[in-house]
Every structure is written in C-alpha cells, then in structure tokens.
Amino acid sequence: MITPARALRGSLAMGLVLIAGALAAHADVIHLQGGGRYRGTIVKETSREVTIQTAAGTVVVPRREIASIEKEESVQQAFARREAEVRAKDDPDAHYELGRWARSKGLEAEARRCFERAIALDAYHRGAREALGHRYHQGRWYTEEEYRRVVQGLVEWDGKWVTPEDRARYEQGFIKDADGTWVRPEDLARKAEEERLGRERGDDAERGQVAPPVRDGGRAPAGPTPQPGRLEPPPPAGDTPGEDKGWYQDNERVGDIDAVTPVESRYYRIRTNVKPEYARRYGEMMDRYYLRFLKVFREMMPAGTPGKSELLIYSSQREFMQAEGMGQSVGGFYNTGNKRVTAFHGLFGMTGTTREVLSHEGTHQFEDIVLQGSFGNAPIWILEGLAVFFESAYYDGKDVIIGLVPRDRLAVLKRGLAQNQLIPLTDLIRTPQPSFTAYHYAHAWGLIYMILYYGESKTVRQRCQQWFSELFQLSRRGRVTAEMVEERCGGRDKFLELEQRWKDWLRDLPYDFDPREG
Description:
By secondary structure, the protein is an alpha+beta fold. About 45% of the residues lie in helices and about 15% in strands.
C-alpha cells in the first residue's frame, strides 16, 4: 500500500499513475486539492479516507486532500441502463443499435442478445441478421449452420463442413493429399518411402553402387521399415500360382458405366463396362469368394438371407480416377453408405490385380453384412486383418485358396521382430483408423492369422476361433474397445502373454506355411 505523500514524490511517478489510469475501462476519479488526480476503482470509503485501486497499485487518500470525487459507471452498468430504456420501446432498430454499441465495448454476449431481440421483433431485420452472421438466400434468412446444411447440402466432419460424398470418403479412411486427390494414409507413407528409396538409389549410383529393387505388391510398404539386420530375406514369391493376369490388360470400354445393364451372379450384382465375358468372369470369381466368406463367418451370420452385394468395376484405372476423384495409388474402396465396392479392371501397382482389390474390399462388404450395419463398431485391426487375410488368397479359375502366407507382410514382421521394432499389441488394438499404416496392416494380419491357425490340435484352434467370433459379434451391440479385447482375453496380463506367444509363433512361421497340410 502506498500513501499520497509517496505517490506525489516526483512528477514522473504521478505521470505514470495518470497514464496507467487512463487505460482503465471503468474508472473513478479522485481530484486532489493540489491539482493532481487518481484514476481507478474506489474499493473502500470511510469518513476519514478513500481507498482507490489504480493501475500502479492501491492508494489510500485522506479526505482532507480530496477536492472532489467523480464516479463513472462501468460499461456493464451503462449497458444495463441503456437496455432498460430500450426494452420498454420494443423497437428492433433500438435493440440493434444497442447491440452495435455493446459489441464496440467488448460485450459480445450482451450484443448477441440485443441482435436476437431485434430479430424476434422483426424477423427480416438485415442489420441484426448480418451482425449474427446469418445469410440471405432466395427470400429467407439462415443461420450459418442452417445455410451449410440446407442451402449448400454440407455435413459436419471433424470440425469442418464437407459434402456427404467427402464425409463418406473420410469415414472409409481416405484423406486428401496436397493436390486434393483422395488417398489412404498408407498410400502417402508408400509415396514417401519410394521417394526416400529413390534418393538412396541416387546416392548409391553416385558412389557406383546399385540399390536393390523394392517389391511392394502394389500396396503400401509395411510401415517404418526396420534397417537391414541378420534376418534372411523371404524367398521370391513370383506370380500367384494358377492365376491368369493377361485379361486384366484388356481395358476395352463397352459403354458408359451408368448405362450398362448389371450382370447378376448368385451373390452379386455387378455394374461394369468391361467386356461381357469379363463381367461374367468377375461374377463367377466373387461367388467363390462369397462361399469362402460364408465358411469363415459361418458362426456369425445373422438370420435370414442377405440381398445381393453390389460391385462397380470401371473398365480402366484412368476412368476410375476421373469418375471417383481417386489418386493413382488407390485400387478401390468399400462405401458403408451405399454398401457398394468400387474398383477398376486392370493391374494395380507392381503386381496387384483387381482380384486382390475386390477380395480386400469385398471382405469389408461381407463384414458389414455380418455386423448388420454396425461396421464402425468393430476394431480396425479385425476389419483390416481379415481383409488382408482374404486378399492373400488366390483364385485358380475354379476355387479360392485361402490361408496362404503373404510373404511381404510376414517378411516385415520377422524383420521387426528381429530388431525389436514390432508394434506392441496393446498399442495395435488402440490405434484409430486414421493412424493405421501399412505396418499396422501387417500386424493385424499376423494376429488374425494366429487366431485362425494357432496350435497343433483342432481343439486349440476352435477355442481361438470361438474367442474371435464372440469378440467380433460384440460389435453388433456397440463399439468394441481395447479394454474389452483385453478383458475377453482374461485381462491385461493375459493379453501380454498372448503377445509373447504371437511373437514366438511368428518367429517360427515359415513363408510356405499351408494350413491345408496341417
């Protein structure tokens, strides 16, 4: 606390008090006998002295030194007084002007109240509407949210307004790259990895060395590739045995895809503008996959007979990219809104084909059938692990062979295991879809593969599969959390034991493992 005598020592001190006091939004002024003054807020008055809070501190002024006291009303007090005067008039313009004054004084909540009152009195008061950010369109006013939803037809997604089509893409795990093209997060990771490897090859070339080629099977590389260790590389896979890839190179377009008559197979309705014999071939192939889906999901199928699943297959990648706005690294997708798989006819990436895309996305389509519309409740590691499992199968023209090992996925897991860089399973089951990289895809496949084929006895396998079946079907009732997964396993400690068994199993799993021989 300071006294008037100390405060008056030196004109500089008084000047600082006056300058600081002038900045106060609400101020009382004590005028002194000697000509000075204090500006601030009076906090206490007695018969002998007055205490005022200034910007420089608290000052106690004796009554004998005070010439006069000038009390100014605060902004809030001024607003309350003006509002009482305006309220009695029911004049929308008066409320609008008071709102403008309140906003200029920083009273935003009070300002909005005035503008809303003006609109209540006059629904078409332009000034009040614009002050609230409303928009005028074809004879009526809309709030910002109403305008976005009703006029522009947008929906909310992650704090921003997007088209329903874009929201569907986001929900499927797509994002937009810097050019505005739809890609998956793992596609960006693959591109970055290819650029890094390209730079390394350039450096090697300058040193007279040649970097080894990278085989990614048309998919994103499996996450943060560990540095080379003592692990032996997997044996070359070559082409899928018994698979004809020649027909994928025939991209003749037989008409506009919206005008063609869909081809009906036993389980699918296929709209495509490829040659009719190719359309029938897709129907036969996907029917075989459907039978495999039924076999794996037989204990989980809902009652009744589901309708035919829909496929949309463009005649070429170029047509697919132009029509769907997808990037070159996207082979296809499943839309949970219209329940349709969309892809293109042709080769995908370095070694991939339409069959692999349809089997991966077709798995999601069938998962949605099993879950009866609760697709989003299922853990992403289950959804994608199963999709990679079926993607790794092959079709020899007569049957679909499932359970074979995707060598690139297993290779990256063995490499990560050798260098202690595997993703902990406790982290894997907590990873949300936007953060699910190709490295996560490999882990998800590895965990699903163990659940299906772990153990030498049929009893052990059946127990594992029953655990998985019950866990998957929980999604029909609500979102399955990581905690629920651990609880179903017997708790966190038991889940950690499962992780160690999983690592041991992966370490010993051969690349040519064939469950049909077990």
